[in-house]
Amino acid sequence: MPFLFPSFTDFMLPSGHWDIHLLSDIFPASVVPHFFSIRCPHPDDVADNCCWRWDRQFSKLMTNVERTRRGISDSLCCDLCDGLFESVLHVLRDCPPARVIWDTIVQPSVRMRFFSLDVSEWLMENISSVSTSNPYKLAWNLLFSSCSWQIWKIRNDRVFANINHDPSIVLSRCLSWATNYANLYHPHYSAVNAVSGLGTIGGVLRDSAGSWISGFCRNIGFSDALTAELWAIHDGLELAWNNGFFTLQVRSDCSMVISLITNPNTTSSSHTLVRTIANLCRRAWSLEYTWVPRETNRPADFLAKHVPPDDFSFLMFEQPPCFITDLLSRDVHGSSYCKVRSS
Ligand SMILES: [Zn+2]
Where does the RNase H type-1 domain start and stop, copy by copy (predicted)? Predict the structure, then answer.
């Protein structure tokens, strides 16, 4: 037995990555891939902290009604609505900042019912609905959940930080998250296999003329689509920095990732990789993030889809692999893409 009381660092290489061979000696083969999408601990990491989570059975959102019930507040009322109790339903549905969001996305035909249910019915009915009869063609339970979460966050920003958010920006954030959740279940749009849950990433470094500098890909083990996109950005930044490229335009076809890592609050993000990328961005270089359509990002996608399933090393390509040379040439010469929708 190599370690009696091992720490995380015992399973890491001096480079700061997991020691795959040591992990494979100790853990079953089916367990090892679970490590790879988790970023290794880093000396710059801050300590863990507590956060609240919603649990319908055992806890309540800490509204003023709930805080008063627990004896930690003497006001039951909403700070915006004179005399109205700040219950869960009030915050999430009836308070003006919430109402603005729901009035925009709830269809007129169901609006009366939506605003008349009690809290249990309201939550259960909405999180059970997979209808896409809304202007955004998203499953209603995803849209509803995203909006409820953002509405609770803007309430906390207002109460605890005196920050008021523009409703149109809040709504676009809700739609981004709902779209991201929806994409998690579309294997076609993700480098994460919907059946196995195993993810791969790929990326390409090119100069301003579009010529090849370097490419990379690797397995990241069990993951989700958002984490896979973040790993691709992270590894691409590391590769660029290590090769001395300090003026960089980062192109991604994932608007959610760009939104997350360009947010002013990245250093306090709940996602470890977002915080890690934020730290990378603080290095002395010039970075610009640009969203590009998926069709124009196909070389990176192709690299991700060609990772050998049993190889967990970081694969680098000094020359473009033969299966993407046509795609690169097409990008350089500016041939257009025609997107065909199935419906
Ligand atoms: Zn209110």
Answer: 191-306
Task: Tell me the CATH number for domain 198-332.
Answer: 3.30.420.10
Distance in Å, CA 111 to ligand 1 centroid: 19
User: Which part of the chain has CATH 3.30.420.10?
Assistant: 198-332
Look up the pTM and report it. Answer: 0.57
Q: How far is the CA of 84 from the centre of ligand 1 (A)?
A: 7
7 vs 9: CA distance, rounded Å? 5
Residue pair 298/306 in contact (Cβ under 8 Å)? The answer is no
Reported as a pLDDT band with limits 50, 70 and 90, residue 91 is very high
Distance (Å, whole) CA 229 – CA 252: 8
How close is the Cα of 14 to the center of ligand 1, in Å? 53
Which residues are within 5 Å of ligand 1 (an ion), measured at CB? 78, 80-81, 95
Q: Which of 37-51, 167-181, 208-222, 282-296 has the lowest mean pLDDT?
A: 37-51
Helix, strand or coil, per DSSP, at residue 290: strand
What does each C-alpha distance from 157 to 9, 153, 246 come to in angstroms?
37, 6, 35
Distance 83 CA to ligand 1 centre (A): 9
Using the predicted structure, report yes or no on whether residue 45 has a pLDDT greater than 60: yes
Lowest mean pLDDT across 75-79, 113-117, 128-132: 128-132
